[in-house]
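Is this the right way to post structure tokens for a design question? Let me know if I should format differently. Anyway, here goes:
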């Protein structure tokens, strides 16, 4: 991933329009900043299901003035994210849903999300953990087990749990660790256990080194000194997890309109022939506008970001989706469907 990308907030900072937005996971829950384990290690304990999302990372030219330059004080290009219409999170496969960014072969990335206890936050928990809301006092099913859930990022109750964003390159490493995580049943047979298993899960060390090649920026190893780290029913009462399954549906029309507005200025598309008609139309329109400006001696204000749906508008959560925007699974590595025991009496 290119490190010069702009955040959605920066992209929308010069826009006065109130528009709907493409909602990212970090808009809804506390995603743990990878810089917290940059060139260091953080010990975590995975919990609950895994969900996935796929986003296109778009590099786009800024509009130029009549002299062919970008607006004063701005870079010649900027980056933004758009959800992929072709990605089916239920199957974790790309399908044909007429995604224009896929047709133009704009790079896309799948990200996985799961809850995890951050041991540093656990060790430094405040004496006053705040008051839970009424919703946070009710145990709810998340994946295969019941947990207490944070109602929102704004509620005051403390939790050492954060949501980890895991790149696809990391899943093979997690799968290898999970394949060696087992316990012996009552008959002396070896039984494989998921990394998030409440009884037989383990602690992990996460690493992030931005100076390495993309495939090796992230690393994870098992904390062999801790052994199994069971989560008791009593301790589970003290935790608040994040409902990562509650994400809004992707607005397909908004994605297609965004593509139409910026297609002529996309830099990192690999299928240039697909963009050509948009570029021809944009060039013809630019010439007509220049002619009109010359005839009226009119000053035009440049606003690149009017073409892009920002991420700062109000979020509509829980709307029914024709196709869910996340995949839910209990295992970050194998994404298997094995059942764990549920504490139905957790309340």
């Amino acid at each position: 991933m290119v490190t010069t990308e702009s955040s959605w907030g920066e992209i929308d900072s010069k826009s006065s329009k109130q528009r709907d937005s493409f909602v990212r996971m970090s808009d809804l829950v506390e995603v743990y900043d990878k810089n917290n384990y940059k060139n260091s290690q953080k010990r975590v304990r995975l919990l609950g299901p895994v969900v996935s999302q796929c986003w296109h990372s778009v590099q786009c030219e800024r509009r130029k003035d009549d002299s062919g330059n970008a607006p004063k004080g701005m870079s010649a290009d900027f980056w933004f994210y758009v959800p992929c219409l072709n990605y089916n999170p239920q199957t974790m496969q790309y399908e044909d849903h007429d995604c224009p960014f896929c047709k133009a072969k704009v790079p896309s990335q799948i990200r996985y999300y799961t809850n995890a206890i951050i041991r540093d936050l656990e060790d430094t928990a405040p004496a006053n953990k705040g008051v839970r809301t009424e919703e946070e006092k009710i145990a709810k099913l998340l994946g295969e087990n019941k947990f207490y859930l944070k109602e929102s990022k704004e509620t005051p109750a403390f939790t050492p749990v954060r949501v980890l964003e895991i790149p696809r390159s990391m899943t093979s490493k997690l799968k290898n660790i999970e394949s060696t995580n087992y316990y012996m049943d009552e008959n002396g047979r070896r039984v494989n256990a998921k990394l998030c298993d409440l009884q037989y899960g383990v602690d992990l060390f996460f690493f992030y080194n931005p100076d390495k090649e993309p495939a090796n920026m992230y690393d994870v190893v098992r904390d062999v000194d801790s052994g199994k780290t069971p989560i008791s029913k009593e301790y589970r009462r003290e935790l608040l997890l994040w409902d990562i399954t509650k994400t809004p549906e992707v607005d397909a029309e908004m994605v297609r309109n965004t593509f139409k507005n910026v297609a002529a200025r996309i830099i990192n598309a690999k299928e240039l022939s697909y963009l050509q008609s948009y570029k021809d139309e944009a060039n013809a329109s630019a010439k007509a506008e220049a002619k009109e400006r010359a005839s009226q001696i009119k000053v035009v204000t440049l606003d690149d970001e009017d073409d892009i749906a920002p991420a700062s508008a109000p979020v509509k959560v829980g709307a029914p989706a024709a196709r869910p925007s996340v995949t839910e699974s209990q295992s970050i590595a194998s994404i298997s469907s094995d059942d764990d025991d549920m504490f139905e009496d957790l309340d």
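Format looks fine. Someone answered above. Worth noting: Confidence is low (pLDDT under 50) at residues 1-19, 311-325, 334-347. The first strand starts at residue 41 and ends at 61.
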